[in-house]
Structure formats: structure tokens, C-alpha cells
Queue: 2 jobs
Job 1
Amino acid sequence: MPAAQVSLHEVTRVYPATAMGRTVHALGPVTLELRQGEFFAVVGPSGCGKSTLLDLIAGLAPASEGSVQFEGQPVAGQVPDGVGVVFQEDACFPWLTVSDNIAFGLRQIGTESTELQRRLRHALALMGLEDFAGAYPAQLSGGMRQRVCIARTLVLQPRLILLDEPFGALDQQTRLLMGDELLRLWRDTGATVMLITHALDEATMLADRIGVMSARPGRILDIVETGWPRERDSRIVADPAFGEVTGRLWQLLRGESLKALGKAAPAA
Amino acid sequence: MSRAARYRLAVVAGAILLLELLCRIGVIDHLTMQPPSEMARDLFRILISGSMNAAMLKTLTNVTIAFVTSVVVGVGFGVLIHGRRAIRQGLEPLFATYYAIPVYAFYPLLIILFGLGDVPQIMIGFMLAVVAVIVNTLSGLDRVSRVLMKTARVYRLGPIATALKITLPSAAPYLLTGVKLAVAYAFIGVIGAEFIMSQTGLGYEISFAYNNFDNAIMYPLIVLIIVISTAVNMTFSHWEKVLMQRRGQR
């Protein structure tokens, strides 16, 4: 079995009480291991703490209890070297061109100019953005902007890529195609990918393993193995096993989603 | 040129022509006001002769100092107190009522403290401009999206790099609003102070010409000030427009 790249042990996240309200137990306890090079998806009812889980692994939020480790080192206070994050919201810098957006992280770490140009050209080609190198994000569609953000993450050659519902704002067909590209990038880069999503079919189509989370405070209810070969693409949705896996996810989640709704109902 | 720009030009040109007409047919007598054509001619003469070069240099230098310090201090202070809730909540009502205070009331005090030189005039310009910059900086920083702040942390930027590379560029259109106001306030502050009490500068020359019924100097200088401040303002507006277009707004 491949080594664990990320390991969470009994991790919880509690938001302290503010002047306005009580403490909120957002997540956990969660114990989870991500294996080197796997594609791991996380699904769960809305508000279950999926994004909180990603923030903890990325070092964007501290764990209230328990430990988070990346490559054997505790994650504390800052994003570890080798970790890239792509968010659901548009995180392009609107004041920079596509090229400057993608090169941002490379300039930040002082990459030498010819190497920077080489990696930039490679990333532009990889994401099909060559024709838009000099464009500003506002001139691009939502899907193209998300590609810019993915390219901006990939140029830094991360060993772990965390994706927080990156296709959430895109239409269904664009999502399928972006899913294909994501699978291709995952194979080509050899990086570990963790994808947060609310779309069960997306999780089934993309992941090797799927962590199913409970309603808040989110815990890992079960981990479903899809058993797909490494060489795969979106056509897998036609495979009979696709429906089986997705069905199993929904079986696990149905009760939890109702719980999430039930809890939300009196407040609404 | 857009239709709106053509209308704008027509309104200004119409007003100037009307003024010219009223002066020429004697509705406005010559001792009250020169016709605009004579203002332009006399302004040209003044600029050629160089008689006002020292005054222009002095005023523009002081306006520039007041403007630059107000932008640097205003943006810096805005960045510093943004996100410090207690300090902001304490100060914001003061900013809101600040422009109710006639800053010129402090001018005599400033002259007592610093003498009748450039410093009190620059300080008046600075005091008028700086709060507009602070307020607009804060409002721009408030609008920086959370995901960009998270992105700054993903790139492990420190507080200063975050301000220079993420928050200030992101807030740039709002900063430019503050900068435009700072230009106007710096002009008003410095020239107004020169009017009230000083020994040199464009404001002083206008007031001197006024006291001597010297319309051939007073009106051209007023026109000069209008032209300069409008040109500066239009330059910043142009930048603002370019920035907004890049972001697909307007």
C-alpha cells in the first residue's frame, strides 16, 4: 500500500463563541489518510464542514484538537510547501493578465526568467490558454478563469492539489470536460488530488476513493472505493459500475442530507 | 468620441460662448469680467512672459507635496487600521464628521507654529485631502474578496507583500477615487491658504490682482488653475477607466 501523504488524527474544528452566538462545532473528530498519488474526493451534505476539512489540510485554519500532517510534518499556521489550492470562487487576479496570473507564484519564489517562461508556456499549453495569454480575466468565461487558477497552481508543481468545488459555478457539460482535463493532469503530474464536491456523480467519475461525510459536525461515515483503472475519462459515466457507486454514495448520504435540512428548517 | 462626451463638450463650449456674448454686448461690464477670449489671450501672454513662473512653480510644488503625502499617509494609515476593529470603530465616526470642521480655522494657528512659509499651506492641503484618502482606502479594502485573501495565504505572502501585491491592486479603483479627491482637496487647500495669507503663489497673485482691479491678470490665472486641476483630474479619471475596463466593469 502506498505511503500516507496526508494524515489527520482525531481532528476537530470548533469555532469559538463570538459576541453574537454560541460556539459552533463545525467538524470532527476526523481521522483520515490520503495516499501518495491517489485521487480522493469528499462528499457530504451542505454545511457539513467539507471546506473546513480542506482549510485544515491546507493550513488555512488551525485544528481545535488533533493533528494534521503533510509528508510527516505537522501542518501549522501556514500552507506547506508543495501544496496547491484551487477555490470555488473566482480567485484570478483581475488586474493581471492570464500570463501574469499564472506566473504569480513563480515570481513570488524568485524563479529564474528562462525557467519561468518555460513553465509558463507549458502551463498555457496544458490548459489550452495560449491564445489568451495577454487577456485579462474579465475577458474570459467562468470555465476559462477556473483554468487560469488551475494553471496558476500547477506551475508550482505541487505534490498535493486541494480543490474546493472548483467546478461548482460551471455548467454540466463544461464540468464533464473539466473533469477529463483534471484526470489527465492528475495522471501527468503524479500529484495527489483531493477534491471537495457536492456532486455525487462528479466524485464517482473522478476519484479512486470517496470520503462520505455526515451532517455537521462532519465526520467520515465511510470511504467508498471506486476501483477505476488509472487510465479513465468521463465516458466512465456509461459504465454499469458508475451507477452502483453513485447509488451507494446516495444511500450513505440520504439520511445525513435530510438531517442537514431538518436542522436548517427551524432557522429558516 | 462618445455621445455623452460630445454633449459635455457642447455644454462647456456653449457656456463659454454665452459668457463671451454677454461680455461683448455689455450685459456684463468690462470692469466686472473680461470676455473669455481675452482671458485666453492674456493667459497666453502671461505664460510667454514668464512673469508667473515662480508663482506657478511654488503653488504646484506645494500642491504636489500635499497631494503625495496625503496619498502615502492616507493609504498607509488605511492599510494599518483596516481589520483592527476596535480602532476602526473608534475612528470612523470621526472621519464621517471630519469635513464638518472648517480646516482653514486652524490656519492662523499653523502660521503661529510654523511661520508664514510653505509649511502651513501644505498642511492645510494635506489635512483636507488625507481623510478622503483614508476613507476610500478602507472602503476599497473592505471589498477585497475573501478568496483573494485566502489565495495570498496559499502563496505564503507576509502582511506587507499581501498589501502590495493583493489588497491594494484589488482595491485600486477605490483608491483612485480617493486619489482624485486628494488632487482636488490639495489644490483647494493650498490655493485657499495662499488667498488668505501668504507672500507668493497663484492664490496670492489672484488675490493681489483682485485688490488692484487687475482683471487682465486675475481672470487668466483663474483659468490657469481650472485648466491645471481639470487636466490632472482627467488623467486620473482616464487611468480609472482603463482599470475598470480591464475588470469588465463599466
Job 2
Amino acid sequence: MSETLILNGHLIDPANRVDAPCDLLLRDGRVAAVERPGGLRGAEAAETIDASGLIVAPGLVDVHVHLREPGQTYKESIATGTAAAAAGGFTSVVAMPNTVPVNDTVAKLEWMLDLARGPVVKLFAMPAATIGSMGEKLTDFEALRAAGAVGFTDDGKPVLEDDVMRAALVAAARAEVPVSQHAEDTRLTGGCSMNAGPMAFRLGLRGMPVEAESRIVERDIQLLREIEQAEGLRPHLHVQHVSTARAIKAIRTAKREGLHVTCEIAPHHFALTEEAVDDYDTHAKMNPPLRAEMDRAEMVEALLDGTADCIATDHAPHAAFEKRQEFERAPNGITGLETALGVALRVLHRGHGMTLSRILELMSTTPAAITSLAGRGGLGQGHYADLVLFDAGAEWTYDAKSSRSKSRNTPFDGAPMLGQVRYTISEGRIVYRA
Amino acid sequence: MQRAGTAANPLYPQGSLLSVTHLSVEEVSKILSETARLEAMAQAERAALLRGRTVALLFYESSTRTRTSFELAAKSLGATTTLVSDKSSSIEKGESLKDTGLTLRALGAECIILRHLSSGAPYVLARETGLPVLNAGDGMHEHPSQALLDLRTMLTRLQGAKAAESVNERSLDGVTVTITGDILHSRVARSNALLLPRLGARVVFCGPEKLLPEVALELGTGVEIERDFERALSRSQVVMMLRIQKERLAGMELDLSDYIHRYQLNGEKRTAFAQSAVVMHPGPMIRGLEIADEVADGPQSAIEEQVRHGLAIRSALLTRALRAGAFQG
């Protein structure tokens, strides 16, 4: 029997509407007791953590990470990526399927989820929606769901064809999981490497118009409507890494209409703009690209007003040699697991007055709900003992060199962060301590 | 997050020229005065300036004027030059820009002149090698030495050789420069539009929407768009024609006969609307398309002078890159 006591901390658990000083007892990987201060006096435990001055919260959940295993372990592995997750306060991560080969069968999914891969925190996965993520033929949703799939996506690419996306939404509705869509009309983005606009024009780079994102979001929402009417099903569309005001507008309208749409926003899309591309900094190259200030401000607004459901990092490690080349040749993506909380607290909490409770809802409660992670995203008695303990007022500077990820491709190297993770606990085990 | 460099702590190796926006008006002026000084210098004296120095020309795209003028400029200053092109080097075998640059540095190159098809490539090369890099044209981004030679050509034609020895913020007051054609894909247009207004000029872009999107206006103050070529001509002291870049028009439908009808600079239009304007073209020009023979070869044409000014300006840029001549110490 392994027990851990967490004393003197301030518990914020949005799922259970707690925002008060509390002591916790963890036993055998689960939450055994949550009590008012002093309520656990006399309890004995192998380990006692003094959480004075710290926020105690459900471990963060990231529904969008790239761990590069199998196939590209020079960029990242399940072990190193989840170690970075632990350092960032995450206790559950959802791996995208664009590995080599693409995760599109039960055998590949099981291989990925096998504990032999050495995950440091709990690993989930969304397998491909179509075979090879080629956008043509659906994978076996039912069998994959039974093997643990928490959603389906061709991330990195959109499911472009109307009839294929419709079939994916129907199959996912039957399996009771979301289709997670990378919304990009690739017919409008060929050869593009940043956001369309004055900056792209000045830099002589071809730009991705905002319509490339919003059109697919609008098309997918229309499909939801049609399926609800025709099939009597209620499919769940999850829109990945929303970056444009236009797409947010479409999502806001769809939610009012009562359709089952959720969406995520990446920290870089509410913290940075296309200005960061100046001087062709490939650490500011990702897809969807950093947008204009108007779009960035709208991402903050959407997080504040509830249109956005969660924050997801789109952690996308790349080796230095891949990023240190011509802007147009460099691959898309940045790492994000270690900086998400620090950026969210700095920009949303300090910059816009968002409560810590709302931030934890966006980073734990809701992402766990979107992917139906049973017993996670909250700290009720009997739930998994997945926790993050952080000093919400600590100011620090991110140093990419100290990253636990194999890669260093971040625009936040040297950037100020607010809120430092002190402990990350995954199913009762301390997996990170600082 | 990357921060812009300062004069005391430049982000890019000193002597680099990656973008005209990295040059202050004062630096532009100094380049012009050094250009004039080098031009007037006795050949033997000039050939001593970069004696024993090594300059590499790294060309990923074909070029006649830029490559030859940089090469001849370096040789006239006494430097040893070496040319590496994508067609006859390990670049064909997949060597990265970084490794190619490091190889050239290991072989003794002290400055690299880069022509590349990818916008921003010179930034990568400068960051990775730490050597001064002269941008000889990168994708659709910039061609800074072209803008400087264009500036010198204009000043000489409009105000005389003496006036081309220095500039300030008002040197081109009252001068309107119309740049016509494929602005969207043109690095020459961008460099000129980012440089000339800072010296007092107005830059008028002219062309159809497909080749000249409205967003071009946001390059900066002093830039405007006039779709009507005749109206643009009638207010210009300088008319710069650009080549229709067939290689960059992939998927874009452009009616060439309509384009010629509306935007070609021919003798008739020149006489009717731009009697005394200086005619310029960065080359290569496609006679019969954007420009007619009689204009290209006519008395108002400064096209060959541009080439000569190119040789002179690039000599100064090389001394600047290698901290010789007036840029010593």
C-alpha cells in the first residue's frame, strides 16, 4: 500500500467546484480523501508533501501532442515526450497518429499504448480517421475504440472530402468519441508557410488565408447539422488548434445552435502573432500559422467567454537540423508541453484576469471530458491520483536547453513564465519534482 | 523570442546586407560615397583593397547581371572569388544550406554572396556561418543591392553624378517612381519600396490585382497603388518595368495579350504620358512583353547604366562586408 499526504495546499478542482485550502490523501494511485485543513490529522503516509503556498489541482490534460514514436525517435520518444509532459504539469496526454507508420490499426495502437514504451504519465491516443491518413477509407473505429482510442483524427492533414468526413462523424458518433479535425483547406494553402497578410507580403512568403481554416470548420458544422437531422445521431466534432476569429465565430454560432462542437486553442495562438516570424524565425513556424493581432485577441476572448473548451499544446518536436534551414523548407511545429501552464498563467491569468479555476478547467477538466477520460480531470474521492502542484506566483524564464523533450524548437526560449510546477503526480507516483 | 539587433549588438554579422530595412539612411549615404570614391580610384589602388581576401558566390538560381557584377567587383578589388552553383556542387546531392556555408567558410571564404530561391535564406546562412552575407536576391523577398544601384541610377539621371554621392531623408523629395508589373513576386519591387520612400520618394505600384494585391500598400508609408498605367506614367519621373516571371506564375491565369495592351511600356505611351521620365528595368527583360524595343533602347532608357551602377555599388558593398576602404576599422 502506498500512501501520500498532501498538506497545507490550496485545492482548485473545477470538476468538483472546490477552490479552498484542503489536504489530500492519495492511496494506491487513487484519491482516498479530500479534507478541510487539519481533517487528515493523524493519517499516516509513506510520503508527506508540504504544499504550503502551492495550488493543488487535477493534473493537466493535453488532447493534442506529437510524440514521434514509432518512426521518428530522433525528434522525440514516448518516454521523453511524456517526461516533458510531467515537467509541464501534465498527467494525461493524447498522442496524434501521424507517426511512421501512421497509427491506423489496433496492433499499432496497442504497441503505442504498451507500457513497454516507458510513458512517464498516462498515455492515450487518437488513431487515424482514415487509413494511412490518406483521407479516403475509414479505419475500423469500433475495433480501435475497443482498444482504447479516445477519438479519431488525421491530424497534420484535414479530412477534406465531404463524404469521408461525414462517414467519419457518423462512425465516431456510434463509437461515442469525437472526430478531431485539423481544419485546413489544403486547396488554399499549397506552398504557404505563414499567415497571409502584410507580414507575409513583406517577407516574400506565400500566406495561408484565414478562410482555409474557417471554411473547413463551417463545412464540418454543416455536416453535423445534416447528420443530426438525417441519422438521429449526435456526432461530436472537436476542432483542433483554432487560430482565426472566423473559425471561432462559426464555432460560437454552432454551440448556440446546440450542436456538439468543442475546440482547443494552443498557447502560441493566444500568446504570439505573425510578428514573431520576422527574421524568418523557424521557431515561429507552425500549422495553423501564427495569425494577426486581431485573431490572437479573439483567441483570448474565446477562452474567456467559453467558446473555447480547452487549451492544447500541439507539442510538435523537431530536430535542430530540421529547423535550422530555409523558412519554407523547415517543418511546421513547436514544442509546448513545458511552457503551456507558464504561458497560460502569464497571458490569461495575469494579462486578462482569468481565474486559476477557469485555467484549470481549460487545461484539465474539459479536455478530460472531451476525450471521456474516466476518473481523470478531477480530484473527487476514488478518482485517479493525477495531480499538479504549482506555485502560481512564481516568475521564471524558460530555458529550452533544460528541456526534457529531445527537441528544442520553441519560440518561448528565454521567455518569461508565470507559475512554476513543483510536483507532478501520476496515479499516485511523483513523476516530477522541482 | 528573437529580438531585433541593435547597432552596438547586431543580430547578423557586421557588413551583412540581408534587407534594405537593415540600413539606416546614413549607412546608405556612406555606401553611395564609397561607391563614388571607388569608381574614381586608380585601378591599381582599387585592386589592393581586398588583396588576399576570399569571397564566395553561392548561387542557387541562375543570374547574369548580379553574379557577374559581384564577381567582377570582387576581382577589381583584388579579392579571390569562387563560385558555387546548385547545378555543379554537392547541393545537388542534398547538402543543406548550413553545411554548404560552413564548407565555404572552412575553405577560407570571408564573405558569402547568396542568391537563393527561398525567401529568407540569407538570414539562415548568416546565422549559421557567422560570416557577412550579401543578399543577391532571395525568393520573392528582397534584392537590396539592386535597390541601391537603382537609387544611384535615379540620382545620377535626375540630379547628376555629384548628387549621387550622398543622400538624406529629403534627397528624393518630389520624385515619383512607378514600378509596374509583377509586384507580388518581385524582390526588386519590395527592396525599392522599402528604401526609396525613406529618402523622400513616392513609390507607385502599378499592375493588375493578380500581380499586385492590395496588401502591397502595407509595405509602408510612401507606397501607393495606381491600377491605371497611363495615369501612373503621367505623374512619374522614373518608370521601372518588371519582368513577367513565368516561372512564378504557377496556376495563375494571366492573359498576356491583355497585359501587354494595358501595361506594356511602348513608344506611344512613353511619348504621350512620360515624355521625360527615366526608364529603368532590373533585367532580364522580355522585349515585346513588358517593354517595347524602342523604349528599351531609347534615349530615356537607363537600363545599361543600371548595370554599370551595379558593378560600382557592389564594389562598395564588398568593401563594407570585409571592412576595407572607407569601412575599415
